[in-house]
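ENCODED BACKBONE
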Amino acid sequence: MTPTTDRTAVEAANTAFYEAMETGDFDTVSQLWLDDGATPITCVHPGWPVLTGRGEVLRSYALIMANTEYIQFFLTDLTVTVTGDTALVTCTENILSGGPAEDGAELGPLMGQLVVATNLFRRTPEGWRIWSHHASPVLTETDDTPGGDDPDAPGLHGTP
């Protein structure tokens, strides 16, 4: 395959992963994770410890899907790098989600969150599969953080 074809295939697998999460398609999420019997997969959700192995990782997605009524990902800052049979995708997940509805409402309150993610893929005979997913929340500056509204002040985005 050519580098462009590989990048396109990896980006398609990455997109399929997020679309499966949005639609609650656990079977597709499961199929997109590496399952070669020899290589342990890993996952870090924001605020969670490292999860290792298919059992732990897939249980976490089942739990997330069972407790998330609505989720939508808008991916930005997407980069795809392919080297041999390994591919690295980095992106910003702009997430809009809502939990279970309360008091007869159709949908629970919606929340927005910014998360940076690294998705590591391996080429398999079945196509590109996720080997590792690591997501971390993006801290945003508020008036309570060092520097307040001053972009030149030391703090989260400035230099100490």
In short: Strands lie at 42-44, 51-52, 70-83, 86-98, 110-124, 127-137.
